[in-house]
Design a protein that fits this description.
The structure is a homodimer. Chain A contains eleven helices and twelve strands. Chain A has about 325 residues and is of the alpha/beta class.
């Protein structure tokens, strides 16, 4: 576990200043105090005081998503949630779970038995057993990238898919592309469906035809690319928009294997902006989701639900990140 | 202006406790301190300390909406915004404006010249001069019931129209109604368009036909009713959903003039839940927007924008309020 000295070194401040921040002293600015607390949470340092009273407990359930290291998609979401929750003196427990876990006990029963005031769900699939229970739950529940109609105890937070995909299509159209392919994740998640619809809507609003042979769904991983990219290329695609950065890495590798240069022969755009996407070859043009902020919004939504303010949705605007994997349409392409 | 004694009387606590709350003393609970501050804001009491430094200034622009008294729609929205902003030490100025005011100076110029860090807009119409400038503004701007695509400096907050209208249609269908009319505000505002689309979508999802003779748009006021209600009744409507409570008051009066009893002969549903809607005859069944919370969400969105977190949307779930203006479809109706 990190020590006070580690925190002081990381921030370049004295141990006594860290101590003041952790102990809420008067002679330290509010901004610096929050930085110290955020860094303590980030480095896994908790004082007895920070561990809070037993009855202020929240939990995070995560599945279908990597989160263990800073270059994983889920890492910053969890970090942002914890940072915001600690400021309000909540204790937060993280539970990586799987579909079997959800069969063992009902969601509400689990939460009540274990004394949690609310939960943040990350990475759930539409067919999960607990998802079907959300229409009726009385537990304050904030969902990352899932939405439940009508129940005032459940909120949805995420990035606005249409704005993100539309920014990608806008960019490609401005570069002269018309035959734009889309390789997305599997359609068992709400957010994949949103991005798919966003692609259709954006192509439509740019007066571009949607060709069935240029749209495919598979898992959110780089291996998906080899099943679809050769056909995309054979069918004349000059650009490929991907449902995630992971997919885009595979797409760029597959284009290379097929003898196509990125971006000279084909443009590629990701979605997420993982930390390593600036380091790929070429550096990936992508749609950034601010994951720390998504985590903080998840907490804000949950805290409102606990206080009986029925947040339905909080959506962040994704940000278009221009790097090197896109360029003007190759003049030799059809 | 209210005195400390007025605040003490209203809350039923001592003057010294009020003073502690206003001066951030240590020996008062955080909850009570916030109640004291909220009440002070509500009663118009401000200490020198609460008036804040000159450079932390926000403003609210309001038009097309009454806000002066607690039974006006805008009153609680402004109150909620101010309560949340004062907690973070912002000074807030309210500007009731009109379209002419927007012609005199550009929005960004006005804001920069006067040293405001951001603004909350309430009641703007789509054709307002300043609305056209929002695509490009660099000023943090939170809009109540308006949405701007793409600009990361602008956020939209409001109640989810589809959930609200759908709850009303659900209720009426469960009571046996099929010929449901809709009297909405004028289509120069985004939110009116949303409610209109929500009506079409909800009727469609309930497998009910939309009859052109049962849908109309006019101003958000009770006088609108007399132009349309006689035709709705003549065309066999057994229920009328209204775009606002003000419209619903007029609809109930007009039904009465035409010799129809509410709810025995015709059901009426409002939207907003104004304070006086529980006191109408009959008491109005309506869709409640939590206006204090909408104001607080407006501040939360604006504060995020100022800190460069690009909130796109915060939507609250409206709440269905069942009172006495709806009942099972009259058996004599067609």
């Amino acid at each position: 576990m990190a020590t006070i000295k580690d925190i002081a070194n990381k921030l370049g401040i004295s141990i006594s200043t860290v101590s003041k921040g952790l102990n809420n002293a008067n002679d330290i600015s509010e901004g610096l105090r929050q930085t110290v607390l955020d860094t303590a949470v980030e480095m896994g340092y908790t004082t007895k005081k920070m561990r809070k009273e037993e009855h202020k407990k929240l939990c995070i359930f995560i599945e279908n998503m990597n989160y263990e290291s800073p270059n994983h998609f889920g890492y910053d979401i969890i970090l942002g949630f914890k940072q915001a929750a600690y400021r309000d003196n909540w204790d937060v427990t993280l539970f990586p779970i799987d579909p079997d876990f959800q069969q063992q006990e009902k969601y509400d029963t689990y939460m009540l038995k274990n004394g949690y005031s609310g939960a943040f769900w990350v990475g759930f699939a539409l067919q999960d057993a607990w998802m079907a229970q959300l229409d009726q739950t009385t537990i304050a529940t904030a969902l990352f990238d899932n939405y439940i109609e009508k129940n005032p105890n459940v909120a949805y937070i995420g990035a606005d898919s249409f704005e993100g995909i539309n920014a990608a299509i806008d960019h490609l159209v401005n570069l002269g592309h018309r035959k734009i392919a889309f390789l997305n994740g599997s359609l068992h998640s709400m957010i994949t469906e949103h991005r798919q619809q966003a692609f259709y809507d954006s192509m439509h609003s740019h007066n571009l035809p949607i060709e069935a042979c240029l749209v495919a769904n598979d898992y959110y991983c780089s291996e998906s690319a080899k099943h679809y990219v050769p056909a995309f290329l054979a069918n004349g695609a000059t650009a490929i928009v991907c449902g995630s950065d992971e997919i885009a890495y595979g797409v760029m590798a597959e284009c290379h294997r097929e003898g196509f240069r990125v971006p000279e022969d084909i443009s590629v755009i990701g979605f997420d902006d993982l930390p390593q996407s600036g380091e790929s070859t070429p550096a990936l043009t992508t749609i950034r989701q601010e994951r720390i902020e998504l985590g903080k919004c998840g907490y804000a939504a949950l805290n409102n639900l606990i206080n009986h303010v029925s947040i339905s949705k909080i959506l962040l605007r994704p940000q278009f990140i221009l790097r090197d994997s896109t360029s003007v349409k190759c003049p030799h392409a059809s």
